[in-house]
Design goal:
This protein is α/β, with parallel strands linked by helices and 315 residues long. The chain is built from 10 helices and 11 strands. It has 2 domains: 214 residues, Glycoside hydrolase/deacetylase (TIM Barrel, Alpha-Beta Barrel); 73 residues. A hairpin with a 2-residue loop joins β7 and β8. Bound molecules: zinc ion (ZN).
Length: 315
């Protein structure tokens, strides 16, 4: 019998050896987006049943705190063994409809990072429209020019569509904004998708946000329009970050402590932004770089990852 990583994880879970996580002074920031009953495999989604198991596991085995407490403990050099911060990016409606009741059930704090233009249905995230177009295209094959190269992608199966959308997405992330919007319009024509109606009502509104905020859920800033910050000027990036903080503070009447870089890989934002984010009054910022954190991790470039045993809770 070959022992797979998966088997080892399961053994660690059964024997509670995952508690070795608690030995070192390290903590996790968990990266969720949307939670749904049936993930479609295209959006950044996790399924509700697994999510419930994960929250039950965290409530039982970890100390779940918010960013304010995290920063206070870090400043005082207090232990962070077995500590976890739960986060959700973008502000999806399911965070209110499905996530909020589970958080209440287990009395868990969490932070939702809001992209303020997405709230109240003002706009649907372009990356969601993009994935939707690949998911729903009637075409079985597409031909597309990226920079100077012609690409041919089969789009028969769900897997082929996912492969094609991942490939094109990696180009989009490195593309200046104006060029990206132009490219997206051409792409939707090629994919023969012009109706995005099913994507309406996908995001939270301010009433839901205020209700959760009053209960104790924290809200962090995630810019106004979700740009790739490294693809716009520092001035525009500053405006995006500052304005999203001000809007959330005005709507919730609470201070915004934390920031999440859109897309969040090191290449998606410039290090020059870190002093600006500090100056704007944020106490910490999260990336989507994977890994644990400890006292040495930059508070303005926190890693996000799940404790390893969480991927086998289902079995
Ligand atoms: Zn995001």
């Amino acid at each position: 019998m070959t022992i797979t990583k998966h088997t080892i994880k399961r053994i660690f879970l059964k024997t509670k050896l995952y508690k070795l996580n608690h030995l070192k002074n390290q903590f996790y920031v968990l990266p969720y987006h949307s939670i749904v009953e049936k993930p479609n495999g295209f959006y950044p989604e996790n399924d509700l049943l697994s999510f419930k198991k994960e929250m039950a596991h965290l409530a039982q085995n970890y100390t779940v705190i918010d960013f304010k407490t995290l920063v206070e403990r870090l400043e005082k050099k207090q232990s962070l063994r077995g500590y976890v911060v739960i986060t959700f990016d973008d502000g999806f409606l399911d965070n209110y409809e499905l996530v909020y009741p589970v958080l209440k059930q287990y009395k868990l704090p969490a932070t939702i990072f809001l992209t303020t233009d997405f709230i109240n249905k003002k706009s649907t995230p372009w990356f969601i429209k993009f994935r939707y177009a690949f998911m729903e295209t009637p075409k079985n094959h597409i031909q597309i020019k990226i920079i100077d190269t012609d690409y041919n992608f089969p789009t028969n199966s769900k897997i082929e569509r996912k492969v094609a959308s991942d490939k094109v997405m990696s180009y989009m992330r490195s593309c200046p904004e104006e060029q990206r919007d132009q490219f997206l319009n051409t792409l939707y024509e090629i994919l023969e998708i012009d109706n995005f109606k099913p994507l309406e009502n996908l995001m939270l509104n301010w009433d839901q946000i205020r209700e959760m905020s009053d209960y104790g859920i924290s809200f962090g800033a995630h810019t106004v329009s979700h740009p790739v910050l490294s693809q716009i000027s520092i001035e525009s990036a500053k405006k995006e970050i500052k304005l999203s903080k001000e809007i959330i503070e005005a709507e919730t009447k609470k201070q915004v402590y934390s920031f999440a870089y859109p897309f969040g890989k090191k290449s998606d934002f410039s290090q020059e932004l870190i002093p600006i984010i500090k100056q704007l009054g944020f106490k910490c910022a999260v990336t989507t770089e994977t890994g644990k954190n400890n006292f040495e991790t930059d508070l303005f470039a926190l890693n996000r990852n799940f404790p390893f045993e969480m991927s086998v809770l289902d079995i």
